[in-house]
Predict the structure of Dimethyl-sulfide monooxygenase.
Amino acid sequence: MAENKETHQSDASEGSNHPKEKKKLILNAFVINSPGHLSPGLWKHPRNNSAEYTSLKYWTDLAQLLDKANFHALFVADVLGGYDVYKGPENVGPAVPSAAQFPINDPLYLVPALAAATKNLVFGITASTTYEQPYQMARRFSTVDHLSGGRVAWNIVTSYLESAARNLGLDTQVEHDERYRIADEYMDVVYKLWEGSWRDDAVKKNRETGQYADPDLVRQIHHKGKYFNVPGPHLCEPSPQRTPFLFQAGTSKAGKAFGAKHAEAIFMSAQLPELVQPAVKIIREQAKENGRDPSNIKIIAGITIIVAETDEAANAKREELLSYGDREGALALFGGWTGIDLSTYTDDEDFRFVKDYSVRSVVDRWSSTVPGSDNLPWNKSRIAEYLILGGTGAKAIGSPKTVVDELERWVEIGGIDGFNFANVTIPGSFEDIIDFVLPELQRRGLFRTEVEKEGVTTREVFLGSPWLLEDHPGRKFRWAAGEEPPVYSSDS
Ligand SMILES: Cc1cc2nc3c(=O)[nH]c(=O)nc-3n(C[C@H](O)[C@H](O)[C@H](O)COP(=O)(O)O)c2cc1C
């Protein structure tokens, strides 16, 4: 595949050089390979087919719906353990009836089938640097990048569940910042495998000479580091993107620093654009310090939308959806996200005032960011009710005008490039967004009405090039056609 000019205007920012034209948004659908994602209990709602998540047709129907509506990506979350803190320890029971991210299938297997069933939609797949060797991860993603024509992206996470650590050979989780140090070296290993183990033109497929690939153009990487020793070579020949497009989601100081270095798109979660704005600023500043053009990192905010013809109808829809919620599942999710077991408290205790400082600070920090909630008691019912529709993230509820006004506020104040729309029901939530929200966004010039270039790789969709841009730290590992291999520090 020929490399595009890196000045190529990507779909996502099409027209942004025109001062009068508004920046076109990146819009992704946020899902998980489980009956329950961020709305525990909603799997039983009549507009929710998520109980069919084990059927390929469920996924191809969803992907085709999104592709037809010109969504950019299907973004798939993943976890490697159950939410077993609530009523625990080590009790996944409360998460089971509501299917609170349990059971959960591996997301990467979906990609080739969904790519074959769609034209343009790309696929962001979550995978953790904490529990899988980089050599193996590199092979899994290269395979899928080949089979999807380069339409995969990797959402790099370092994981947060104790249950994952326990099931994957550890007594407890590796310390938080250490996980990011491991992840940083992990990236060096995968860049060497993806970018530099095979020269661009190593594969010859020459029937006359009998040479599938030229052995002089395939080399070991000899990575020797603090956490990994990987001699290579990479098991896979170069795929359309080589390094899959890199998403990342992490909110801590170490998480932001990692994202500013490696990510090409960052997925953020906050209640309000005013709260996301400082984090966006820090990431863009750190990207600059790393020698990167900050606009080469796309910032995507997560949000749950409940929309109907009028504000009243949307509020009624919220109430109806809420009636399917499962409080135990919500508290199980809260336990996994925070490590706090709320079962030891009575129903009416306001957690902002309980004795245990760790509980108080987590609830206070989070609840103080929920708009208009200052005077509410943050007891178990309140927390569960809030989490049942979309988890801890932002929500926009109302008519198309109300919702799109709010999305515009996110773009203007938050300085973001697009959204991951969470689901309450599938396909219900996305059908509503397609029917009510996209036309209003398009009327305001905020969303594409057609795809500029069909069937391109994920990186071309977001950044206009199939391969890592010049300012990305992975690019220096690239072994380009006709060139000598780059020298790695571990070569010496
Ligand atoms: C919006 C958002 C989505 C995330 N999605 C996942 C996920 O699907 N799976 C996962 O293991 N971690 C997920 N995470 C967790 C982070 O990627 C990260 O590993 C964890 O938050 C610890 O890092 P932090 O303290 O920097 O946030 C997500 C985080 C955010 C902010």
User: Anything to note?
Assistant: Residues 1-19 have pLDDT under 50 and may be disordered. The pocket of flavin mononucleotide is lined by residues 77-79, 126, 128, 157-160, 249-252, 254-255, 267-269, 302 (CB under 6 Å). The radius of gyration is 23 Å. Residues 85 and 339 are 6 Å apart (CA to CA).
